[in-house]
Fold this protein.
Amino acid sequence: MTTSPKHYDIIFAGNYTKDTIITPDGTCYADGGGMNYAANAGARLGIKAAVVTRLAREDAHVVGAIRSRGIDCYPFYSQASTLMTLEYKTHDVDKRNLYVKAIGGTIRAEHLDGLEAKAITVSPSIRGEVEPEFFEAMRKRDGVILAADVQGFVRVLRGETLVYEPWEDMGRVLRNLDILKSDAVEAQFLTGETNIEKAAKFYAALGVKEIVLTHSEGVLIHAEGKFHHYKFHSRSQSGRSGRGDTCLGSYASMRLSLLPADAGKWAAAVTSLKVETAGPFDRPLAEVEAFIRLHYNHGSS
């Protein structure tokens, strides 16, 4: 007897990370992972979300925490969770050092068997966590929107240090994507461009349809040949970890019903509010709507 597939608006895939976050203000510990931040943003915006992740059984409390927020979670247990240290020596959120003592394994296409969604958003932390074959398999799904964060492909583990290395499979992956998330540092490394609009065009030339490119001041949306710039309006940077993941999760969620320029407003607003507090985004929808009216009613800059 076959089981009917479960349907979602978005499936967020990526490994859980047990994070140690070091900033000029001190050290804290967090249950991280791009899928965690992205899915929480989406759920707060009203979508039906699911998470597919890998982690150690000793960290199973994370599964319960995700489910307690109304997000279905499908864990695949590994010998270890990904153990990551994020060191920010200054208040510049684009500059940090990353160290990893253990990794949670690879997420494969079969881990999504029995799950269907309008979109699949992939937020890996390290190269090898999701392979190019995953996107080729997902591309065969009828009508699905595919989104991914470039951080999990440009970062390579050497010893216990994460370093940037050229991404030979970039074209192979990008031609299968609808939405790509990158930050300015990753974009400069991969494209050689310091100008973010030129970097976005470089990505687009490889086949990806829409680019969400964050930088220290805000986010650029490049879609349908147009550029939309939105500034962040955060009162503090206390919750800087998970910024990009939140931006991608909120953009992909709103993109299901809105045009790129409007989805960009929501992504900028949610991200601005998220970085004020550590942990996944948890502000009420009405607060986001008020924030958009205050800061983004003029459209993009």
